[in-house]
Amino acid sequence: MNNRSSVEIFTEWDIVAARQLGRNEAKNSGFGTVDQARITTAISELARNIYLYAGKGKIEIERLETDGMKGMTIIASDEGPGIPDLRRVMEDGFSTSGGLGAGMPGVKRLMDDFKVESEVGKGTTITATKWLR
Amino acid sequence: MNNRSSVEIFTEWDIVAARQLGRNEAKNSGFGTVDQARITTAISELARNIYLYAGKGKIEIERLETDGMKGMTIIASDEGPGIPDLRRVMEDGFSTSGGLGAGMPGVKRLMDDFKVESEVGKGTTITATKWLR
Amino acid sequence: MPQEVGKQYSALLQKYIQHEDETDLYAAQQVSRKFIEKKISPEEVISLHKTSVEEIFPELAVKIGPSYDFLIEVMIHYGLALMEHQSLIRKQEAMQIEMDVAVKVQDMLLETSIPKVEGLDIGLVSKPAKKMSGDYVYFIEQKDGEACVAVADVMGKGLPAALCMSMIKFGMDSLRSSATEPQHVLQVINQIVEKSMDDSMFISMFYGKFDKKTCEFTYGSAGHEPALLYRADEDRFIELDAKGLLLGIRKDVDFQQKSVEMSSGDFIVMLTDGVTEGRNAEGFIEEEVILDMLRTMKDRPAQQIVDHLYTELFKMQNYMLHDDFTLVLFKKE
Amino acid sequence: MPQEVGKQYSALLQKYIQHEDETDLYAAQQVSRKFIEKKISPEEVISLHKTSVEEIFPELAVKIGPSYDFLIEVMIHYGLALMEHQSLIRKQEAMQIEMDVAVKVQDMLLETSIPKVEGLDIGLVSKPAKKMSGDYVYFIEQKDGEACVAVADVMGKGLPAALCMSMIKFGMDSLRSSATEPQHVLQVINQIVEKSMDDSMFISMFYGKFDKKTCEFTYGSAGHEPALLYRADEDRFIELDAKGLLLGIRKDVDFQQKSVEMSSGDFIVMLTDGVTEGRNAEGFIEEEVILDMLRTMKDRPAQQIVDHLYTELFKMQNYMLHDDFTLVLFKKE
Ligand SMILES: [Mn+2]
Ligand SMILES: [Mn+2]
Ligand SMILES: [Mn+2]
Ligand SMILES: [Mn+2]
């Protein structure tokens, strides 16, 4: 089963649209209220990063069902400047990171699986999955 | 004005009694709900420390009114073993401290002023004050 | 808590209760971030929430008020954990700064410069896996055309390792030109290390010296990775290894001393296990791969060879180093 | 979240709503501690609270449900901050362990032993204000009955300071017995420091040597606190100071060299500013106080004098050191 939907991110309103899409999909997949809110927050963070640092990009949402496991994948992609120092971006606990606990490490924590691919000058693709327990 | 009341700590029930006394006094002094809860929590932590580490001791509560400032002081005293390494006890962020953020540094944060006097073999006296803003 | 913030929260909540619109939840999270920045504790948020709910549903205040008081009580410990976090972050940053200064000081202190000996071309790459390296390279140039090098891997990384390295450096600096034989050097440094260090601290070290007059390379090893000698005329690689315990284990150790003569085009690669034990997704990188790279580059200057090797191996490991990575190459011109 | 926990919470909340009893709030806080230990995030607590309230007041569920959803949304960022905290605490502990090892290594590396020179009694106290000291004392005993000592205060503390000290130690170790004159020693070490260190890193140092044959004490200072000479026959103190810039500022510095002859019962106290700038509740501790203590103890062995001084000054400062504290005493027997 491959069930994809997506939202292009240009303006701050698109962040809200991506959140709405994500929350609906999460609810329909059977996630509870707290997990719905977590998935939505992760989408929100990713979309906001696109909006702030790449200017434009896309949030795709895919419902998963493999080997009896159900879940949801978020793919955030942009053709922005890319991330020069991935290690730094994934590091915890810098008061400069703008909001304690937020940012990439936050998204990683909100979801179960998390992967970043980034090339400077070419863009960034982040894939994050949450499984239904 | 000197308005003191106290509770002897022998059993876990006495911790509750000390909390109750503290909460009433805090309410009567004009503290809001959140500050009432904070003062009560501080008393609870101090009383629990007495109960767990000294066996017995006393929580005294004093309402303050000086220079137009109103407040409340908690005095927790025991004749227990004393604290050999004060620096260590006041240090933040040891997962061994039993409960994140709790313990002495927690009491210090919940109140405005905080002082420990401790002598090994003689006992410990902790004085903590909160001012009404 | 500033009154403004309270009003904003209350208005947002009211709007959300009316329309249940995602926009308000997005706004709420932006507000909550600001709360955290302003060190508003979770119990204060609950109290604010209570007040707002009671404003919106005044008829419910008496009924549900106590449940919020209960929740405030529960949240206090969460608030404490968070405050601890804020103080810890400041502490952590201070430690980070101290570490950064230490790295800088270490770099200056342990600085070494590549000897300029006629007929010998030297290349060096040394990259730390973390901030502070546990690999150490130190060169000494003696007046009579000798180039000596120590390549060491200190067990562990970070500060304790850095302090160990300063022992090696000052140990080597104290050598007179009459005493640069591998056996002697390894013995001297072994004794310093054994005397000064904890039993749990070991160092592996390869020491070699090239003598311009004889074109001999004399070497010894304290439990270190063997070096590789490339014989240009035979187009083959020979392992250079010598018996010797790790430094710091025992006071009196015999270190074997060997030598080889270098001909034009020959080169010797000294390295640490971070080079030979590189891993990629499929497992360890085969030694054959490294030898092939060296062979391809054999006619280039020493520095180009080691730079190329590093770049290729780093790429093969997906731009991650699992261990400190050090290569020193002596090439006979 | 385990179901058990949920039931316990719900039951406690119901009991509290009925009786509003302090016992239940006490229990609630114990539960909340367990929540934090079990890494239950604040948004999960709100969700649990919502479920419990809806069980207790089923008729209100529709009306107040959305307000809780809003609160859950707000709490998510608090949850993230807390999770970050938990990971940071583990990181911090690892750093702490590394620091502890570094302190141990530093201690071993910088170890010094008090010279045994006929007719000279030496006492030493050196206490760090924090974990790692920024004060450093290093003794050297030369074969012909000379006792040399360097007393240094490195700007800053911690690791960078520790690395600086190893420079002083190895610098002094490399001196030959022919070159122990203060002027020369300070120049050599100044050059090492100037060459290796950042511009922002300075060291003050007092260097002195006692010669058994002449009973002369020769000294120099690189911007360090003056030493104190007690003249037994006159029962008075004289400051021993010599001109010289801090180490590491400029490459070429002239260090003044002076000497005094010591008679029986005379003693010289070398110290760092942590001794002279001790503070108590009333302000700085007066120099006169220190001199009086020294006078009272003048007939005791050197080690007893410095131990006594440390104990008394530590007590006067309410058992807290604001700076590293170092005392070295040379007493002519
Ligand atoms: Mn290593
Ligand atoms: Mn290694
Ligand atoms: Mn200092
Ligand atoms: Mn000082």
From TrEMBL, chains A, B:
UniProt xrefs under InterPro entries: HATPase_C_sf (IPR036890), HATPase_dom (IPR003594)
Pfam family, one: HATPase_c
Histidine kinase/HSP90-like ATPase domain location: 34-133
Gene3D superfamilies associated with the record: Histidine kinase-like ATPase, C-terminal domain (3.30.565.10)
SUPFAM superfamilies named in the record: ATPase domain of HSP90 chaperone/DNA topoisomerase II/histidine kinase
Name of the protein in question: Anti-sigma regulatory factor
TrEMBL record, chains C, D:
Domain PPM-type phosphatase: 121-332
InterPro entries recorded: Bact_Sigma-Reg, KaiA/RbsU_helical_domain_sf, PPM-type-like_dom_sf, PPM-type_phosphatase-like_dom, PSer_Pase_RsbU_N
PROSITE patterns: PPM_2 (PS51746)
Alphabetic keyword roster: Hydrolase
Gene3D superfamilies reported for this sequence: KaiA/RbsU domain, PPM-type phosphatase domain
Pfam families named in the record: RsbU_N, SpoIIE
Protein name (Swiss-Prot/TrEMBL): PP2C family protein-serine/threonine phosphatase
Organism the protein comes from: Sporosarcina aquimarina
